[in-house]
Amino acid sequence: MRGVWTPDRIRAAEERLFEAVAEPVVMRRAANGVALHVRRLLGERAGGVAGRHVTLLVGAGNNGGDALWAGALLRGRGVGVTAVLLAPDRTHGEGLRALRAAGGRALAAEGSSGLTSEAVGALRRGDVVVDGVVGLSARGGLRPLAAEAVGHVGAPVVAVDLPSGVDPATGLVEGPAVSAEVTVTFGGLKPCHVLEEGAARSGRVRLVDIGLIPYLDEPDFTVLDPEDAGAAWPVPSPEDDKYSQGVLGVAAGSASFPGAAMLTAGGAVRTASGMVRYAGPAADAVRESWPEIVATGSVGDTGRVQAWAVGPGIGTGSNGREVLARVLEEARPVVADADAITLLARDAALWDARDPETPLVLTPHDGEFARLAGERPEDRVAAARETARRYGVLLLLKGNSTVVAAPDGRVLVHPSGHAWPATAGSGDVLTGMLGKLLAAGVEPLRACGCAVLVHARAAEIAATGSAEHGGRAPRVGGDEEGRAERTVGAPIGASALLAAVPAAIREVRAAATASVR
Ligand SMILES: NC(=O)C1=CN([C@@H]2O[C@H](COP(=O)(O)OP(=O)(O)OC[C@H]3O[C@@H](n4cnc5c(N)ncnc54)[C@H](OP(=O)(O)O)[C@@H]3O)[C@@H](O)[C@H]2O)[C@@H](O)CC1
Ligand SMILES: [K+]
To answer: Which end of the chain is more exposed for a tag (fewer CB within 10 A), N or C?
Structure first.
């Protein structure tokens, strides 16, 4: 599990650190980390370090200072280094002196009409480009000269702290921005590394210890790693029977639209052993697809369950409303998706059926969220947190970066880095998976985080066939640590995702086992 801190809180921790350790010492630590990861990337992409060429794109602040110091260190390893200075009269003085003393070159980016041809040549020549344009103090989209320079970068980029052009606090991008192969950040992750377009633009994020950790407070939110999901995933113990592992009730689909029922129920069956009961008009179709499910026609006939998954395909008319009200009255943990969210958004009386002490998880995409909150989410973390608090629910806001907020203010984010789950019926599978984790007694916020992570990984496995490669996706360029965007894949449907859920579970469980060795 990794913490994520807002830029303001990182800065506050930095202030406390600087009372104990001189600022230039901290900057040298940061630059050491940058130089290390540049060397690694040169090894991967240029086949070695000495004799290769690195271009630094340097802005006016300390972010540029980090890049210049890293350049000086790289000179010491025989790397040719050219710094392109976007603001020569405001460049970090000590960093520039260090680079020049080490034999690096520096040139002004701007000529009489935009970028000089020398600057363009340097940006094109680098085997790796270091992005030191702007870091934590970034405001708005890239300035025109910086934007023009970024447009000429063709080589793989190591971003210092964050990819320039990405808003540090939200991950949103306005106009041109750097797409990094590797982002080297300091002390703690920032929201831009895991949210919105920033997550994909950050590439592989590498955290460097600059001595900040003791000065950081509680993180603003956290990111689960595969080993966290693996450690929490329920598996039967020798004392277990089918009931003790948690029984899930599924109320989804209709006679004319049985697909939602089959996918939701399937998500539950593939997630954990134990038992799944189905209640609704698609009982025959569900029995046929999933003979292990006990299927009945209505919620009232279902028998005891430990949790409910309700909503996909139940409709938003009176039948759907009745099903949802009946499920809520049982005072068991509930995951409510799709039509159930629409019903809850427009019918305040439905909330009266709910026991406020019992966990209720809502899993909206942005459109459904707008029905609940009155507007589409902009700052997704703040929006999810506020809506979770207002309704007293766990709010799982689906998207490329999925945000899960608990009513007590805790937030988990899952940056999937790929969009393979964006396929019809995929949300139904997630609802079933999450319901089964709730039925098994997994703490609700963690259950949400685990379900989202495994669901996203299952989609990736289905799209790329990566489970056939020993659990690792085949990567373009042979980079085993590369991110999902560089994975070769083919579009999938939700049934393929569902079929890959066990492989994804095995993978996270293997990661958990490896991490305790
Ligand atoms: N404190 C420390 O010792 C440590 C700090 N560390 C490092 O320092 C970084 C923070 O440094 P920082 O605060 O100096 O600001 P920084 O992000 O470099 O940018 C400021 C300049 O950029 C400009 N600018 C703004 N927006 C822009 C845009 N959209 N497009 C283009 N330009 C834009 C703005 O220009 P102005 O508005 O003045 O014209 C301003 O002058 C942090 O990310 C980390 O790398 C590490 O070494 C650890 C120790
Ligand atoms: K940067």
So the answer is: C
Q: Distance between CA 399 and CA 419 in Å, rounded?
A: 9
Q: Indicate whether this complex's ipTM tops 0.90.
A: yes
- Ligand 2 mean position to 80 CA, how many Å? 21
Domain boundary, last residue among 193, 220, 247: 220
The range of the structural domain enclosing residue 330 comes to 236-455
Q: Looking at ligand 1, which residue's alpha carbon is closest to its atom 24?
A: 138
Ligand nearest to the CA of 136: 1
Give the residue numbers of the binding site for AMP: 398-402, 427
402-417: burial string, b at 16+ Cβ within 10 Å, e else: bbbbbbeebbbbbbbb
pTM of the model: 0.91
pLDDT tens for residues 491-501?
999 999 999 99
Nearest by Cα to 435 from 455, 462, 412, 413: 455
Answer yes or no: is the C-beta of 30 below 6 A from any ligand 1 atom. Answer: yes
C-beta 17 within 6 A of ligand 1: no
Give the per-residue SS3 of 201-233. Answer: HCCEEEEECCCCHHHCCCCCEEECCHHHHHHHC
Check if 197 has its Cβ closer than 6 Å to any atom of ligand 1: no
CB atoms within 10 A of CB 293: 21
